[in-house]
Design a protein that fits this description.
Blueprint (H helix, E strand, L loop, with lengths): L30 H5 L3 E7 L3 E8 L3 E8 L4 E5 L2 E3 L2 E3 L3 E6 L2 E9 L2 H33 L7
Length: about 150
C-alpha cells in the first residue's frame, strides 16, 4: 500500500496493530482484536448534545472528533464520566466492555448565568413599563378642579 506522509484512512486496525508499541491496549489486546468487533454509532448529534451507542468486547476509549472544551460533560449509561483530552484537542471518554450509551452535553455556567440575568432584566423592564403605564393612567384620571 503506497502511503504519503499521512496515514491512509483505509488502513484497518489489524494492519495497524504495531503502529505504536508504547500504547497500552485494553486488557493487553492488540487493536485488531478489540477494534474489529467494537462499534460506536452516533444516534443524536445536536449543537449542545451528542449521543453515541457503543458496543465493545473490552474496555475502550470512545473519541469524538469534536473540540475539547471545559464546559462539556459526559455520562456513560446516565452516570457522570470524566472527559479525556484525546490527541491534545478532542473529546474522549472511557467505557467498560459491553453495550453502553455515551452522552456529551454542553453545560456552560457562563451561558446559564447570562440567560438568568437577561430574564431578570427583562422582568424588571416589563415591571417598570407596567408600573409607568399604571401611574400615567392614575394621573390622567384625577379630575381637574372646577373654576368658580
Amino acid at each position: 500500500m503506497a502511503q504519503s506522509g499521512v496515514v491512509a484512512w483505509s488502513q484497518t486496525a489489524s494492519s495497524n496493530s504495531t503502529a505504536d508499541s508504547n500504547v497500552n491496549w485494553a486488557e493487553g489486546q492488540a487493536p485488531s482484536s478489540v477494534n474489529d468487533s467494537a462499534r460506536a454509532t452516533i444516534t443524536d448529534y445536536r449543537l449542545n448534545r451528542v449521543t453515541i451507542e457503543v458496543d465493545t468486547p473490552a474496555p475502550a476509549i470512545v473519541r469524538l472528533a469534536d473540540l475539547w472544551y471545559p464546559d462539556w460533560v459526559a455520562s456513560v449509561d446516565g452516570q457522570r464520566a470524566p472527559i479525556l483530552k484525546a490527541d491534545y484537542l478532542l473529546r474522549a471518554v472511557a467505557v467498560p466492555a459491553g453495550k453502553h450509551r455515551v452522552e456529551f452535553r454542553f453545560e456552560s455556567k457562563a451561558v446559564r448565568t447570562g440567560l438568568t440575568l437577561s430574564i431578570v432584566g427583562l422582568a424588571i423592564a416589563a415591571g417598570l413599563l407596567v408600573a409607568g403605564g399604571f401611574l400615567g393612567r392614575r394621573r390622567g384620571a384625577t379630575p381637574e378642579p372646577e373654576a368658580a
